[in-house]
Design a protein that fits this description.
heterodimer, A: Rossmann fold, 16 helices, 15% strand, elongated, B: mainly alpha, 3-methyladenine DNA Glycosylase II, Chain A, domain 3, Alpha-Beta Plaits, 5 helices, 4 strands, 32% helix, 8% strand
């Protein structure tokens, strides 16, 4: 029996998980339209590599990873790309983002794909393969898995003593990982072995909360069948025990230091569903095209469905048969989930659950009252923070202080808001403060960059001036050096010579620059010229002093 | 009496030597306050404060010549930080200062005659082009200072406000509507 450890605080909200585990995982029918966002992972959005009107096959790459911190996006089924445009996605801002609209042709025609012999491959190649398969963490953070497998500088992978598979699934209502472990335990175990191989990790622990006995049994059976030395560890049910840092604490007793990664203390943690998708990517060459989503809450048929990525939420809602008093939908769990602005929003890699909500199921919170500093929030905070102080600093926009009180260690689990007797929505204040601090850091980076460019520009202008001055000086120097032979003659002679030379040059130039339009003239043109010249001569004569005018006239007549 | 004089003179010489040495050894180049102020300013180099760039304005603030409320791109946030740093009261923007949304310049390529005047004005070298060639703004480097707008002889530069997207979105301060008690 393994010794388990504890983390501070945590809460025990009602689980409400039984309803959606009565039926097995069903495959959702192919929808009439898929909307596939290019930003389904943490980091940079993928770059579209298909055009409107293209016919794509199931599993075809439609979004290329753009930059280091990015992942690939694929067509979830075969069909035609009808549009590539900004559409509403599941994001707290409610802002639209770039999505590809795919009209399925119903043939589910796969692109050629093949298994990878991972035991005889280079880890870097395997990571690249996972990146191109769009494998990201399916626990909710959607962090690209290839980056979590990359050795850190100074922390080679062989230093990783423990690989943890997270099957805790602590948030109420959500049962997608539970059902996945019950039904696809063998695939998860194989995926875990692949992850262990890439990480060169020592032991593998599979942490599952004690409210999922069937999943524990299935996983134990699968581990025994595979003959791999993995250990399935049952951990007590407590929210948020399924958060990576808290599960690491419970299983190993190690605490991930503030601002550091688990790999730096020799631990890495993956969700069970991620392990399953790693298995599909390596053993079958299949990119991540679908995931298990729970539909539960105020519905008639709560169940887990395997859903193609990009399926609109309304398709799943229809399968669950939402009750008529449902007035809103939540993506994720009741603690950390995101209220959806519409049901046309597509399900993505991060969507683990859709809860149909009504005021009866989730009564609206009473109005917030002032903080009485009772410190209940600090008692339940799993990250050992002091939420009442963080709240004070966030509310008064003292962001530097909030950061000093480790605001960024907050995992936004909502345990503090859950227990607050004044019903203060603490997490929303923390999210606001984090967002504001990130924006400021971005502004500061932009300002520093602009300052650098401005200073470089000033330096460049100065340098150009200097270079010009140097060029002029060099030319003068050259002119001076060319003079000495001429200087041997007397100054007067020299001047005379120069004048003569200048006259000669001027003559040459005058000879060379005769107007070209006087060559090859016709007789008529010649006559015209003669006439004009005559008129000119006459005009010239008239311009003579007034006394000669009469003579000129008489002369003119006589002609 | 004499010994007292000698002791006092000795102390004076030692202290003088220490002071003289530290004046040379720990000499501070430039005014460090200017750097601190400059670090707060947004570096748009727009000149809306009346000084030719952010650093000259920082120098003016440090010497007490200029007020802290003359930098529109820095916003009220910037004034607050300057007030904090200098230990003075926060001052709202003076009359006539209009706060504009963040924008980047845009060159209408149908009108540009390639005169190079705009990129001579750009303080951060964010315009690419050459004489009698089309010019264009490098949007990622543009600070939105508008210094290129006036020099353009054919009025082909306009300021395009930046639209909020998922990457630049900021959470609002939590606001809750009050519900009347039943």
């Amino acid at each position: 029996m393994r010794t388990l450890f504890k983390f501070n605080g945590g809460i025990h909200p009602p689980g409400n998980k039984e309803r959606s585990t009565q039926r097995g995982i069903a495959r959702a029918p192919l929808p009439a339209k898929l909307v596939i966002p290019f930003r389904q992972h943490a980091g940079e959005a993928a770059r579209p590599v298909v055009r409107v009107g293209d016919h794509v096959l199931k599993g075809q790459l439609i979004g290329m990873p753009d930059g280091y911190f990015s992942s690939a996006v694929h067509a979830s089924t075969s069909g035609t790309i009808a549009a590539i445009a900004a559409q509403p996605i599941a994001h707290p801002s409610g802002l639209p983002d770039l999505c590809a609209t795919l009209i399925p042709d119903g043939r589910e025609e796969w692109i050629p794909h093949a298994a990878v012999d991972y035991r005889n491959s280079d880890p870097a190649e395997l990571r690249q393969h996972l990146r191109m398969c769009g494998v990201v963490g399916l626990g909710g953070a959607v962090f690209p898995s290839d980056l979590k497998l990359r050795p850190l500088r100074g922390h080679p992978n062989k230093d990783i003593g423990t690989l943890i598979l997270n099957g805790a699934e602590c948030e109420p209502y959500i049962t997608c990982d539970d059902m996945l472990m019950r039904e696809r335990a063998a695939e998860i175990v194989q995926g875990a072995e692949m992850l262990r191989f890439m990480l060169e990790a020592g032991e593998v622990l599979i942490g599952i909360e004690d409210n999922k006995p069937q999943a524990v049994a299935a996983m134990r059976q699968a581990v025994a069948d595979s003959g791999l030395p993995f250990e399935v560890v049952v951990v007590p049910t407590i929210y948020p025990g399924g958060s990576a840092k808290q599960l690491i604490r419970v299983l190993t007793g190690l605490e991930v230091p503030s601002g550091k990664l688990p790999t730096e203390i020799g631990v890495q943690c993956f969700n069970v569903a991620t392990a399953c998708s790693v298995y599909r990517a390596l053993a079958h060459g299949e990119p991540l095209l679908s995931r298990i989503v729970t539909i539960t809450g105020n519905v008639r048929r709560a169940q887990n469905y395997e859903v193609l990525l990009g399926t609109p939420v309304q398709e799943l809602v229809a399968l669950g048969e939402a009750l008529p008093d449902t007035d809103r939908y939540i993506m994720g769990g009741p603690m950390m989930g995101l209220p959806l602005s519409s049901t046309a929003i597509p399900l993505v890699k991060a969507s683990n659950c859709i809860i149909a909500a009504s005021d009866k199921l989730f009564p609206p919170a009473p109005p917030a009252l002032p903080c009485i500093r009772c410190s209940r929030c600090a008692q339940v905070c799993p990250a050992d923070l002091q939420p009442m102080d963080l709240f004070w600093f966030s509310q008064s926009r003292e962001f530097d202080k909030a950061q000093q009180f480790s605001l960024f260690d907050c995992i936004e689990c909502g345990a503090c808001s859950y227990v607050c007797p004044s019903h203060i929505p603490l997490v929303q204040y923390f999210q606001f403060a984090k967002s504001e601090i990130r924006a400021r850091e971005q502004d500061q980076r932009a300002a520093d960059h602009a300052r650098e460019r401005h200073e470089f520009r000033e330096y460049r202008i100065e340098r150009e001036k200097q270079e010009k001055a140097e060029r002029l000086a060099a030319r003068e120097q050259a002119a001076k050096q060319a003079q000495p032979p001429a200087a041997s003659a007397t100054p007067a002679d020299d001047a005379q010579q120069k004048i003569q030379a200048a006259i000669a040059r001027a003559r040459e130039q005058a000879a060379a620059s005769r107007p070209k339009n006087t060559d090859n003239l016709t007789a008529q043109q010649q006559a015209e010229i003669a006439e004009i010249e005559a008129r000119r001569a006459k005009a010239h004569e008239r311009a003579e002093p007034a006394g000669e005018v009469a003579d000129n006239h008489s002369e003119g007549r006589s002609q | 009496m004499l010994s007292a004089l000698l002791v006092m003179a000795g102390i004076a010489i030692v202290l003088g030597a220490v002071l003289g040495y530290s004046a040379v050894k720990f000499r501070v180049e430039g005014n460090p306050l200017v750097d601190k102020i400059d670090a707060i300013l947004p570096q748009t180099q727009c000149g809306q404060c009346g000084y030719p760039g952010c650093r000259p304005y920082a120098e003016a603030i440090a010497s007490g010549e200029a007020d802290i409320n003359r930098c529109p791109p820095g916003g009220e946030e910037g004034i607050r930080k300057l007030a904090d740093l200098l230990g003075v009261e926060f001052k709202p923007f003076g009359g006539g200062t209009v706060l504009k949304p963040k924008a980047v310049a845009f060159i209408d390529e149908n009108l540009c005659i390639g005169c190079t005047l705009c990129f001579q004005a750009c303080p951060v070298d964010a315009i690419a082009g050459a004489a009698k060639q089309m010019h264009t703004i490098i949007a990622s480097e543009c600070t939105g200072c508008e210094l290129c707008v006036d020099p353009c002889p054919v009025d082909c530069i306009s300021m395009v406000p930046l639209r909020e997207n998922i990457a630049t979105w900021k959470r609002q301060y939590p606001v809750f509507t009050l519900v009347a008690a039943k």
